[in-house]
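Risk register update: the risk that structure generation would not scale has been downgraded. Supporting records follow, first protein first.
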Amino acid sequence: MSAPKITNAREFGRVAVLFGGASAEREISLKSGRAVLAALRERGVDARAVDPREDGFAAVVNGGFDRAFIVLHGRGGEDGTIQGALEYHGIPYTGSGVLGSALAMDKLRTKWIWQTLGLLTPRYTVVDDGTDLDALASDLGLPIAMKPAREGSSLGMTKITTREQLARAYSDARALDSVVIAERWIAGAEYTASILDDAALPLIRLETPRTFYDFDAKYLASTTLYHCPSGLEPERERALADVCLRAFKAVAASGWGRVDFMLDGSGRPWLLEVNTVPGMTDHSLVPMAAKVAGLDFAALCWRILETSFVTRGAG
């Protein structure tokens, strides 16, 4: 369902911009939230900062807020937790609902759904303390991506190129989540599709001299290259955008977000993950794609805030 178009900032009422939080992505959330807060205020929105870790959720409940703009990355903000609390208190919010947030945060269950629908995602294995890591390497073939199932920003993820790296990679991922997955590494170009109000923004092709598009490449490095327009033929880009929209909706995601995928040497798209509260920093991908589509940062934040008017129920 498309969000209504709001023309007067007063229609939003008093807005809580939720950022910071207690997840491993707190520092990025602080940067994203400050940028969103400034942009909304620039457009005349009565926006107020709320950091659930510092202010407590009571600050939202007792603050007289009409709606919330969620810029909480990672656990507690992107996994359905804050969404459920807001729904319980009858406070509308941006982006995906409880179900979509919880599913998209869980890379394992996301894969289950995609596989059921015939959407390509890299072959994987769930790894635990009893897994024979040598057999795992033989089965999937090197290189392998090892990652926690419920973290964002590539935290805890390792690209494994030798068997000697397996144990340490598992330990690093297991330190962040009780569920760890290993998946076949797809060689090829990496892309992302930003989703805004049931439509895909221009695709971005990513290039980094690092081993992969990790946390540093996402947020710190000046060597990462972002190609938007992506360089794909328009018809091909539209087809890939349609795949990403289908993947986004398959996990009940809505409003806005991002779908990451790889194109292998044969041109097949391999879906990696869905982000329901992507970064909104100066290095972030959704603002880049929006700019190419003709939306400056303040206009993008306005459009995202409009998604708080969509009735989504549990999903």
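Supporting record for the second protein:
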Amino acid sequence: MFDRNDLKAAQDAGVLDGETIARFEAFMVQRSGSDAAMGDGESLKFLANLNDVFLSIGIVLLIIGIATFSGTFFLPSNPSALGAAMALVPPAAAAWALAEYFCARRRLLLPSIVLCLAFCGSVGVAASLLFGENAVRDIETVTGPLRALGNLGVVGGLSTAGAALAFFARFRLPFALFVLALALAAAAYAGMAFFGDTRMVIGGTLALLIGLGTLAIAIVLDMGDPKRTSRQADFAFWLHLAAAPQIILGLRGMTFGFFGADTGTASAIIALCALLGFAVISLALNRRALIVSSLLTYGLAISAIASDLGLGALNTTIVTLLILGGAVVLIGGGWSTARRVVLSVLPRGGLFDRLFPPEPKALATG
């Protein structure tokens, strides 16, 4: 009557250590005759029961209510960006106070995610408003509006990242790393777009570089916990989730052009080959985020190739759906088998076993 979340809670409370949990999970895998470990590193258990959803809805309504009341208190007396920023202080404080109970004590994941978003969002918007009041003076020049937007983007991203870092430092919520990574990326995009080389953003180069950097950090965390039994694996999961879309968007920008402007056969084949490479890496790392994030780009590449073969709009759609859906079903249903095939051609032992976690062997029956 317990699951992996309960085991993690026991580890965090000092009742069980990581080695004991790993041995217990291995025993349960053997006892059930399954070749899939309990801790596959990507169990999305955002809620323990429907009460978590109910509670999260209540938190959203409460924070909105506090923000509305705060706005009616501060804005009439100070109808400015400063007044609007001050109005966001109470909802941010309320989100932090509620997190002290629901995140620090109760460890309810979905409500904690909602509170993290409320706190980080309030801080980020408030900081942007405070800075925006000074940035308005720059609009008098021709390039002023662009500088103002760029500064707002950088300040908003960095302040949101700072709030996420504070939330993570206090509550050790893995989701806060997701917010931190995306906020820093947003600040980098704004800074490069308005003050650097815009082509790096439009062409996807910056997104690819940031995504690969985030992925590298996630892999390092995974290597510290190859069995995926500790909270470190959850930290890595959210960083994988933050890295994957940026890698795929960067790849799309570099192959298809801005917003998929160029979907010719050559670009589609290049993108498809690169995506297949990412799929192999995803299998080797035992992380599905890269594959999930690239489904749309897979579809665009397949559709472009089918269209250039003269199949027509309807037939192109049918072929794309059949190939894409079939591939997802095959990989999803035979994930363990596909991993064993990929791992069979990769080096094993030592560092490689930490980088590419071995797949549990299927037990013989009969």
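The first helix runs from residue 4 to 12. On this basis the risk owner (M.S.) recommends closing the item.
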